Queue: 4 jobs
Job 1
Amino acid sequence: MVSGDDGEFICALTESVACLGLASLTMLQLEQMRLHYELLTKWNTRMNLTRISAPRDAARFHYAESIYGSAFLSGAASALDVGSGAGFPAVPLAIMNSRLSVAALESNQKKSVFLKEVKQLLGLSNLHVETARIEDYNWSRYSALVSRAIDRAEKTYTALIQSLSPGQLLMLFCSERLLENLERELPPGIRVDRHRIPNSQSRFIAVINGLLANH
């Protein structure tokens, strides 16, 4: 049975996806997103997974933006979500592309337990949960790194960009201010491709390629 909040979430997600100019979700994708949202709101009452939990806001800022980002990973075979937290963008990315192997990296044990429950509930065989800090984790085998809303973002992202291997991709969901701060700290010659998220004045997807970062 779909609750009032779940029904509002599904409607808001459908509208948000359309506003971003994206293809409609399948019934299975909608149901998997709904199940994730339902579990998120349940867990959020006893631990801080996200401050954005209202149906319309969550649909727009968490799910639809994550779905929008999936287009920038079209050539990737695997992706590591650094600091996955409540599962963004890892869970929507795994739902949108069953051929993409997605790892959700989360250092917090309780959040990792949540992500493992999400994986089981949604039946996402292409989603894997890794419990570790990025500083202690070997991420060299992933085609792409993705991230949004982590602590010490500037320091962590700068270190990641400087350590990218040729062919690796880093995709960040971030503000213009963070982008500007990142660009000031990077060595000359590294190009950051900005993609403004439609209908947003301040939110961007930044794409950095390891081939550029090593030249």
Note: Residues 4-213 form a domain with the Rossmann fold fold (CATH 3.40.50.150).
Job 2
Amino acid sequence: MNSIDTNTDLARFGDQLEAAAERSLGSARKRRIGRVGLAVAVLSLVAAGTAVGTGLFTPHQVAVGMPAGTFIFGGTHPTCTLDGDGATYHCTLDSAPTGDQDDYRGTKEVVAIDQKVAGGCIGQDQAGLAWDCWIGMDAVRHEIITQDYLGEPVLGPGQG
């Protein structure tokens, strides 16, 4: 083999090695950019979910969230106060729920805030005028909603 063939082979090998390195680095860059985009999306969801999960809401937001989450609360004009425990919202309706139940004690209904399942309420009296509500994981602990339902989109008030 002469030196010209060896130089040509080495040059070709070098070009192939360089091209392979560029492909590998380009692919890694794309994966890195994709990972950064995914991380930003996950952080956004976590931030929204954290607000729902930790119950960082005012009594007014919970009151508005009752008819937003459940059809029977429509037109009932709820008002809520936050209990001293910092987790329980005691809510009172101006008028009875629109459901056809005779007794609302123990009835569980969803609260939606910002078009997401944020928590739920349990009826405290027969007429359905008094409700105790919890947001986030507190609603899960009270077995009103499941953890996987928390934060799900709500397109309109639910029925039943």
Note: The helical segments are 3-54, 59-69, 137-141.
Job 3
Amino acid sequence: MTKVVVIMSGKGGVGKTTVSTNLGTSLSVFGRNVIALDSNFASPHLGLHLGASYVPITLHNVMKGVNHISEATYLHPCSLKIVPASVSYEELKSIDISQISQVIEDLKGYSEIILIDTPAGLSKEMKYVLSATDYSIIVTTPDIPAITEALKSIKFCNDHNVEILGIIVNKVRDEDFEMNKDNIENFLEKPVLGMIPHDHKFRESISLKNPFVHIYPEREATKEYKRIAAHLIGQEYVGKKKQDNKFKQFVEGIGLKIKFIPDTKFKK
């Protein structure tokens, strides 16, 4: 049975798309079949992070009834499947956002896990997304404004009967003014799944059109993502010994251009 998990936050800029791509990739490392879908219609960034700025069929085509959802699903070399939304402003004006719940329903059965990348805040489209969602993960940074907005997201999920798996705290710098894990858990009354350390190479990974965990396997943030993924599926993550990453050196040397192809291997 497919599990649908919405990645959400009450505040913009906390890194939901980064969490969606890297958590999805980490789950695929453990052999899970994962699809990440971009439901941020106004500012879709999932495709931009992974080199799918322009693809022939997007989620918008599906929302308009022109294509089936399987035709808008693309396979990245890291084994993560994605459903990108169109970056076109004109496309945004021509869709009925209420259709997103049916699109998510139609996608069920094609993978074990569907991660839904969402817009920030508690917008109208979030109600439609949550209506087709089983679980949520709240993303925040360790500062008071973001955590305050995370509390609103938790209450929003409670109002829509969506189970909250926990909190991912992103961009952690270990500075004195940041809230620590215990304080965050006490304030939000939800478990912190992981604390992702700030790393300047996250920006590099976007320019390389690859998930951070895929090309920087020895970084501490990668290990934390894999710990979170292992926890969510009930496995134990044991980090490997540090070794040379020739693939990383290769992509840093020449740059990596990703070619997306529709995934034709779907079977219910």
Note: Residues 3-262 form a domain with the Rossmann fold fold (CATH 3.40.50.300).
Job 4
Amino acid sequence: MAKAKLSRLKEIEKDIYSLFAEVASFLGYSEIHGRIVAALLVKGGKASLQEIAKETGYSPSMISLSLDFLEFFEIIKKVKRAGDRKLYIELQGDLVEALRKVFVSRLERSLSNTLKKFESYRRELKGNKQEEALKILKAIEVLEEEIKRLKKFMALIK
């Protein structure tokens, strides 16, 4: 009976890892980032690089590469302990705030790229009097206005 309960707990842990991987993927980032955060949460906010690798199924080198991203967004911090060669990782700060930063950053980059692309299309179509070109230019105008509205919304989220 105890073995069945332990097995069920492991299933739940793995499901949590998958759910966080899905969130990371939704934000346009690698699933590994979500799995690392989930593993840290399950481990009480602190774990060694090797423990995270074991829990997530990723190699220590893959985990190590992904930690820089999480550290940049202040989701985790890397910690060395005196007399210990292992690298430890700790959750840092407010997880929701960190996820908000990631979301805002990703969306701002996407909006900026879209506006640049629209500008290049506008230059390319400048002077073109064909009906289809005029329709495309009108669509670009409408979409630019929608993006401006979205940017106002983003300012509120910030």
Note: The first strand starts at residue 46 and ends at 48.
